[in-house]
Amino acid sequence: QVQLVESGGGLVQAGGSLRLSCAASGRTFSYITMGWFRQAPGKEREFVAAFSWGFGNPYYADSVKGRFTMSGDHAKNTVYLQMNSLKPEDTAAYYCAASSQYLNASLVYEYDYWGQGTQVTVSS
After folding, report:
1. Residue 117 host element (H or E)
2. CA–CA distance, 30 with 119 (Å, rounded to integer)
3. What confidence tens digit (pLDDT) does each residue in 54-108 have?
4. Torsion of CA 103, 2, 82, 107, to 10 degrees
5. 4, 16, 26, 101: which has the highest count of C-beta atoms within 10 A?
6. In this structure, what are the phi and psi dihedrals at residue 15, rounded to the nearest 5 degrees?
């Protein structure tokens, strides 16, 4: 099992920034891809960003490209999501996820482990 704990959410004005963190513990050697998803009330969970350890650069949803940056510290089993130029439509619960099977995973079913989520609210 892999446990994921997100932190760093909060309330920010439009145009502001937040940095989310996700710390993994447990059988951390078993996962190869880390991802961020988000879910707004009444909407489906959607892909935000992900990368596979040692397999190239992070990749992003078009809606966040150029504004969000994902990074990771493999030694600390921690990934980050730096969110800049935030918009009200970025308001959602943000979830960290880990996949043990898929490289370049961007679909919900490709991920085995999920955190509890952290709320991001962007006011206009």
Report:
1. none
2. 27
3. 787 899 999 999 999 999 998 899 999 999 999 999 999 999 999 998 888 999 9
4. 40
5. 4
6. 90, -10
